[in-house]
Amino acid sequence: MNTPLTTPKDRGGPAQPLLLLNGLKKHFPIRGGMFGGTVATVRAVDGVSFAVRKGETLGIVGESGCGKSTTARLLMRLMDPDAGDMVFDGEAVGVNVQAGGITLKEYRRQVQMVFQDSYASLNPRLPIEDSIAFAPKVHGVSGAEARERARELLAAVGLAPTQFARRYPHELSGGQRQRVNIARALALHPRLVLLDEPVSALDKSVEAQVLNLLMDLKEKFGLTYVFISHDLNVVQYISDRVLVMYLGQVAEQGPVEAIYNRPAHPYTQALLASRPSMDPARRRTEPPLTGDPPNPINPPSGCRFRTRCPHAEAVCADRAPVAAELGGGHEAACHMAAPGSGHSKAGRLAA
Amino acid sequence: MSEVMERPAVGTTQAAPLVRMRDVHVRFVTRDRTVHAVNGVDIDLAAGEVLCILGESGSGKSVTMRALMKLLPRFAQVSGSIAVGGRDVTAMSEGELQDFRGSEVAMIFQEPMTALDPVFTIGRQIAETVQRHEGVSRSAAMARALELFELVQIPSAKRRLEAYPHELSGGLRQRAMIAVALACRPKLLLADEPTTALDATVQIQVLLLLRQLQEQLGMGVIFVTHDLGVAGEIADRVAVMYAGKVVEEGPVGALMAGPLHPYPRGLLGATVQAGMRGKRLTTIPGAPPSLETVPTGCAFAPRCAEAEPACSDAVPAPRAPVAGRMARCIHVAGG
């Protein structure tokens, strides 16, 4: 088998979302007790639906335990969801080709991932050139060709191949290693790149270099990004649309301007207000939220944010809010955003 | 505020600052290599002042702080003078250090889970510190622990004293560690990136708590961080470190509005802020130098856009263009 690896063709046209997730769930049982029975369940991802459009950067933000990394692993199919389905450019993921699906091997060729820990995600015993060439070889590219491609990619991410190709991961700095990880993710000509906190472990001056590189590569190779981060400023900088997660569910999603200028969900508002101000003259005196995010083992009934929400009312405990459309693809899962929900402030946000 | 935490007001207009470090060098010498982590740091801290040491990984910020408490491993060679409250830290014996740590100076760390002992309840750990330094009874120490928990705003304090560290959330653990640090009313609190591992909504709570406690108790605080935003939220003064040297120092407002040295200027440009969307980020090319040799010129020169041959000739002397500000750059005016 010697298929030349090229960027797979766009099948569904520009209007077809590149990746569509519907009702994705992943629960982890906690076993314990004398007979190892299930004593509790971590609802890491609990009914998440969203679309990744072609050519966009979708930012996913949230605090620890909100399920953003589990979502990334589900997207990459490093774990199987308990429920829900995934459609990649019109083809169901993990379904055989005869039934109109895309196999996992082919899916994973088109979707690649960059992890936060740049050192742990590289094989310490392989020179970086071989790490980059590994996956293309698995997919049937000849060794010489794969190595040539690896050197091209090293140059594309700003590492001179003559100087760096034969080095081992421990001989590189954190920023350089993250560049290698990015090069490796691009080696299979993917269409979608999942970036799970790719700059969180880097120093600020290096972070800016990597962010600039990601912007350049996106343009050069026509990529689509899913960018997961807890850094709201970085997400605002790089994303076209933003998804805010809280305790395994989507709290709010929409275009970046809408989310940052007109946040509708009280959690998004608090999250944005928690950013340290860069101006010492305008220091905050009151924290926007008190307490820590609750444990996803026993999430609160109804709206999961109600235990920390300043606007919580009886209806919030009774019913889980459904996503209310606020125009232009901006949605918030809050009773206040949905007219007629029974919340005393309902409907004020709707246009 | 509880009575127990009341402290005699800091002796007004003391001549000696709370912290005075002069020409401090730290070298780590092992068989394979020598790392010059800190290369001549001068730091002054007045009582009741908050100083942020800002720097990237490897800049020597944490090493400087550990030197202040004499917490460095044996193979570290420390030179220069370090005085806290007029006492020479470098000359202290092991016994004197044990009294000094905890009662005069206390430290909080980035990761409370590793800083707290997992096999004792939080209450026990606080009470132990109080008993050790103040020689009070166990029950009096536990009463103090409860007050401290209320001071750091831990809800249902009484129940949480009985908790083990793993039973608390990240934010509560960090508050508990602050309570341990404050147990003996230190005059100086050292904080090593205490909010870096916390979520955004929790980070701001802990920062505001620290600021409030610092004002209430009149402590001097040295706060190490790599995050300009955190410095902006808590500092009175900021010292920016690069390659083991303070390259710029000044009041937080002035420094963040207009840094003098090219390194903090680059750092400010490289920090993603709200409203920068669509603009290309300015970066600092290259990476910090390895510190296996002592820099002979300006350590930042290889990455600096304004570097000229004179930059590599000698280490730039500190210059003060305005009172209270200092930068080590030959392009800065003033002597």
UniProtKB/TrEMBL annotation, chain A:
One of its GO terms (biological process) is transmembrane transport. Keywords: ATP-binding, Cell inner membrane, Cell membrane, Hydrolase, Membrane, Nucleotide-binding, Repeat, Translocase, Transport. InterPro entries: AAA+_ATPase, ABC_transp_ATP-bind, ABC_transporter-like_ATP-bd, ABC_transporter-like_CS, Oligopep_ABC_C, P-loop_NTPase. It is an enzyme of class 7 (translocase). One of its GO terms (cellular component) is plasma membrane. It is a peripheral membrane protein. GO terms for molecular function: ATP binding; ATP hydrolysis activity. It is found in: Cell inner membrane. It catalyses: glutathione(out) + ATP + H2O = glutathione(in) + ADP + phosphate + H(+). Its EC number is 7.4.2.10. Residues 290-299 have a biased composition (Pro residues). Residues 273-302 are annotated as: Disordered. It holds the Pfam family ABC_tran. PROSITE patterns: ABC_TRANSPORTER_1, ABC_TRANSPORTER_2. Residues 19-272 form the ABC transporter domain. Belongs to the ABC transporter superfamily. Glutathione importer (TC 3.A.1.5.11) family. Part of the ABC transporter complex GsiABCD involved in glutathione import. Responsible for energy coupling to the transport system. The complex is composed of two ATP-binding proteins (GsiA), two transmembrane proteins (GsiC and GsiD) and a solute-binding protein (GsiB). This is Glutathione import ATP-binding protein GsiA. It comes from Siccirubricoccus deserti.
